[in-house]
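[job 0412] stage=complex_fold ligand=nicotinamide-adenine-dinucleotide status=START
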Amino acid sequence: MMARNDPHANGHQPLARRIALITGAARGIGRATAMALAAQGATVVAADIADTTNTAETIAEQGGQASALAVDVSDTGSVDALFHTIEERHGRLDILIQCAGIIHEKPLLETAVEDFDRVIAVNLRGAFLVGREAIRLMNRNGEGRIILIASDLAYFGRETFSSYVASKHGVLGLARSWAIEFAPAILVNALCPGPVDTEMLGAGNMSSEWRERELDIPLHRFGEPEEIAAMAAFLAGPSAQFITGQGIGVNGGSVMP
Ligand SMILES: NC(=O)c1ccc[n+]([C@@H]2O[C@H](COP(=O)([O-])OP(=O)(O)OC[C@H]3O[C@@H](n4cnc5c(N)ncnc54)[C@H](O)[C@@H]3O)[C@@H](O)[C@H]2O)c1
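[job 0412] stage=complex_fold status=DONE, emitting structure tokens
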């Protein structure tokens, strides 16, 4: 299905007939990614702990195909139920883009173990649970694309964000290891965005001091969710067949690993 001469892969609908699961699809990078994949012809399963009906409806209004499903990526039962539904409805999965995530800003000595556990549970355990079930399903067809969303913080440390930073280092580790374990059938990469203008960077999630410091990068601006989505769609598509095990920066120059 992903062969170089794939007859379904044309310039306008390179992802036609692909089934794509996008987690975190209620808003931000996940929602933009769901829209981008649908625009390229993929049938999108938009999943989130929040309601994704609006994402699915917007895609339908624009002529695409999407369904809305609920999932808590940190919960095994919830992830199992999600994949049961995908298998029942579609019988296959071609693309996973794992965007669900949370951030936590706190000095270490004020960080409760519950805070640390929650960040690891959503960001790292979530990537593990969803990725494992996706690979199980993809293995049956002998092909697939997995794109985990890590962060530019997968490459360096940052004071007062150590739980989040640790989770994103872990996500990059999963992508690199799975890329080796499941080559050549399944290509696995991690996107490593720099600061992107979503609720994650908003008040309540990040201090204004850090929001300002985030702009201290060569391009001096926040990225838009659509700029991350465009790279996710590229990595899922027919032109990205020689890319696996990479952490791919879309980051305004914030890090140059
Ligand atoms: N915004 C940035 O600057 C930035 C930078 C680098 C990486 N990222 C990563 O990109 C991804 C998307 O972030 P965003 O900026 O769009 O943030 P966002 O807060 O706008 O969106 C995150 C989405 O994940 C969902 N979610 C949270 N917990 C969940 C759970 N347990 N199960 C299922 N869904 C859950 C939320 O409901 C939300 O829709 C995250 O993994 C984030 O760490 C973001």
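The mean pLDDT is 95.
[job 0412] exit 0
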